[in-house]
Amino acid sequence: MMIENILPGPVEADRIQHYLPHRYPFLLVDRVIAMQRQPEKRLRAIKNISINEPFFSGHFPGNPVMPGVLIIEAMAQAAGMLAHLDAEFEGRKGGLYFLVKVDNARFTRTVVPGDRLEMDVEQKRIVRGMGQYFCEASVEGQKVASCELLCAVKPK
Question: How far is residue 155 from each of residues 37, 81, 109, 127, 152, measured CA to CA in Å?
Fold first, then answer.
């Protein structure tokens, strides 16, 4: 997914925490590296996968694999960042975004310690406070997961 970047620089952890309510160990976006608003609204974010992630102690001992549900959650958080940054560009205040539905989730490769998970999110439409997104995650250019998400906003 090609993104024509409009960000002046990466969005770092402190600013991400300003937008997303998640905190350790559930904040799964380390940095936003690109965003575009035209012709489609898109965003690219990353999550660096460390052996120190708390889920690796049980998933799976001796063979650490990032759980698929957390890959989906990371993509949902990236979609939330797209919604918040887009609202900021328009001079609006974002709300609290809730994951409502996941469709067509596909996993094509495992994500392991040392990987850099890149998440590409594209906004498909917004209707009455509901946003639909297409998400794809990759490691070193190889797709590891994809899905369609529906999120609802609760205004602040």
Answer: 22, 15, 36, 14, 10
